[in-house]
Amino acid sequence: MGALAIFGKIFVVLVSFLHHVNGRFQYLNEQCDFYKGNWVFDPLQSHYDSSNCPFIEKQFDCQKNGRPDNLYLQFRWQPFGCNLPRFDGEDFLRRFKGRSIMFVGDSLSLNQWQSLTCLLHTANPQAKYSLARTGGLSTFTFPAYNVKIMFSRNAFLVDIANTSAGRVLRLDSIEGGEIWKGVNVLIFDTWHWWLYTGRKKPWDIFQEGNMTYDEMDRLVAYEKALNTWAKWVDTNVNPSISKVFFQGVSPDHNNGSDWGDPSAKNCEGQVRPFMGPIYPAGAHKAQIVVEKVLRSISKPVFLLDITTLSQLRKDGHPSVYGHGGHNDMDCTHWCLPGVPDTWNQLLYAALIET
Ligand SMILES: *[C@@H]1O[C@H](CO)[C@@H](O)[C@H](O)[C@H]1NC(C)=O
Ligand SMILES: *[C@@H]1O[C@H](CO)[C@@H](O)[C@H](O)[C@H]1NC(C)=O
Ligand SMILES: *[C@@H]1O[C@H](CO)[C@@H](O)[C@H](O)[C@H]1NC(C)=O
């Protein structure tokens, strides 16, 4: 047998091996939807202890605020067709060396940012970190890796301006987007503030073009603002530098009818997920708008589709064990450790597989 024949054989083996590897990746991407699955009881799954995450905000620190039950920490998200990759905090820092990640949005965005910084710190407790806050921007840095993980508080994504006519919510203006340019991973969210009325509402009038409105259907206003954001993405994002995600809509649990238990006033006392196959409240109305707007964007944008899996977690909120330990009821944010850790596991999966 000549050298050429041996080389040929090796070549065939090599090609079939690559084929096999390639085939597996295609299976992962095309057959397995990480967002379709269920929560499974898994008492052995590990999660960080909130006491090992010194910078965790008190409003999310349910254990420290006295939440007595811990069953809610023993459920793992299990996609139907495959397993989620384990969150590997060391790999994450190595992979994102020299890169920047920014969460932009409201306090649900803060919730996910805190979860990610806790996951990374507790996985790399020896790695020095720094945390700086200036105005609405919080920057968490691992200097040895030059990895920056930022949170920019921005409840509407579009602009609010003070004018002589009052505080104007400008549905078609997004000057706040300047600081998003050039960031390597952007994760946006907005929803909850669009529903505010009365004294909680931080604007007086809506503006679109040269028209102003005292009131507007909130879902319509939301869609207009998201379309402004979508145009920003198409105009300003360079996909070879920045990956863009939308967090999806984080659901509240303020009404037991949503999960088929009208006797439950809210999430208080809920100690286990909703275990049925279909969440009774159905699709979230804001999520439907988000999906419609994302389809209109021509640049690559990835939906971190956390809505359905979070709808099932009526047990994941601080309820009375949030808000700095006050007795307010919080069925909107999430305890940490908790559900947002799964959001970040999904973010990690999306980042390493695309
Ligand atoms: C707008 O006015 C409010 C008071 O009505 C003030 O608290 C806020 O700082 C002002 N914002 C800007 C950007 O000037
Ligand atoms: C408002 O804008 C529209 C289109 O942009 C324009 O046709 C119209 O003249 C403007 N109206 C006023 C009062 O400026
Ligand atoms: C809870 O939801 C049900 C069904 O959608 C509705 O009839 C009821 O008014 C809601 N309760 C509250 C307190 O909003």
Automatic annotation (TrEMBL):
Sequence intervals crossing the membrane: none
Keywords: Membrane, Signal, Signal-anchor, Transmembrane, Transmembrane helix
Major localization listed first in the record, in broad terms: membrane
Domain Trichome birefringence-like N-terminal: start-end pairs: 30-83
Pfam family, one: PC-Esterase
Domain Trichome birefringence-like C-terminal: 84-349
Compartments (UniProt record): Membrane
Signal peptide: 1-23
UniProt membrane topology term: Single-pass membrane protein
Coiled-coil region list: none
Family, per entry: Belongs to the PC-esterase family. TBL subfamily.
Protein name: Protein trichome birefringence-like 43
Organism: Ziziphus jujuba (Chinese jujube)
Source lineage: Eukaryota, Viridiplantae, Streptophyta, Embryophyta, Tracheophyta
